[in-house]
């Protein structure tokens, strides 16, 4: 299995998926003219995507545990291909609605096969799930630019659909050359941790995470739908500023994805991160809802995008999957089903609230944010595993992995040093240099009791570095 090649194919799918999420809304006017229907009818067709997700997520997630991840990634690609090609030519509204439902099914199939695959690739691949959102955002960013070019050149709107279909064909060939990891492998560390969680705490965490699937999606949907109207109506912000708050949210989201990916890649605790992100998203939203200051609102909009839409929903899924490593697909389907329920219910709820007052809409998002924060706090408390020799040794193993990686880099650099010494005819042993290193260790060590032991470790490292250089020297002189 080539992890890098498989990862690239899976990421490319989500770039295409990002296109699929907005391609109908970006082509609403052209589709309305092609179908000879009002925009309200086009909007009705778009709603079919949500119906498709709601119908398919839990079913496909369950089946992926039995039929395999690759099958469902392929199913998602084929379904999206039919959607893109069909929607470019269809003239019948009923058929268009069916194709929109198929796009929702494609979304569900990709999620069921992809999120689980990244978890099954290895212990750090949970961070890779965060990066999927970055590729989706890239697709959502580039598609409007491509459509603008088509409109300016007065070209057929269907080329935007054909572009996505063409990328799918290429990626279908690339992906099917790859081998997927065995499904539903149970990580030994995860199994040990799960055994230490009482059944009732596990059940409490499960209910909380399912609820978080709803609140994390609802939080984003409500903000993007109502922020512009809210600040215009409540604080009198002009149209440019009101739309800028949405753009800053998007910029924060993309920044968040990249930074959170790096943090998780470097073993930052998902438990701590999910609480911190939800806390700061609540505080940022509090500022947006009650501060009439434009500068504060702009800063808060960026922070809210970073914390609420930068991958925190995917972290919630990672935590949920770790509780049930033997049914990853079912858990993924359940989690995103609750997200789909939010997509369906939030527009209805906020539509009713807006009739009372526009101010109620975004302030209702505060309540959702608070609920989300409460749910993740309950989850982290419930799944907290007491410190044991086994869990502490697992931490040591992770640290050792990083040390080995750095030592490999150090020995690669030693090779370069050896070559330079030979060119300049310098001896392998440099006493002043080694003395300097030991002095720097004493200065940099933050715990004095550790200093003499660190120095002994480095003396051993330097001794082996000299032995390595001697070996290189002997090999070159044979």
From TrEMBL:
Highest taxon of the lineage: Bacteria
InterPro entries, per the entry: Chorismate_II_sf, CM_dom_sf, CM_II_prokaryot, MFS, MFS_dom, MFS_trans_sf, MFS_Transporter, Sugar_transporter_CS
Alphabetical list of Pfam families matching this protein: CM_2, MFS_1
BP term (GO), one: chorismate metabolic process
Chorismate mutase domain sequence ranges: 383-473
GO MF terms, alphabetically ordered: chorismate mutase activity; transmembrane transporter activity
Membrane topology: Multi-pass membrane protein
Cellular component terms (Gene Ontology): plasma membrane
TM spans (from-to): 12-30, 42-60, 72-90, 96-118, 130-150, 156-175, 203-224, 244-264, 273-293, 299-321, 333-354, 366-383
Domain Major facilitator superfamily (MFS) profile intervals: 6-389
Subcellular location: Cell membrane
Protein keywords: Membrane, Transmembrane, Transmembrane helix, Transport
Family: Belongs to the major facilitator superfamily.
Record-given protein name: Transport protein
Provenance organism: Bombilactobacillus mellis
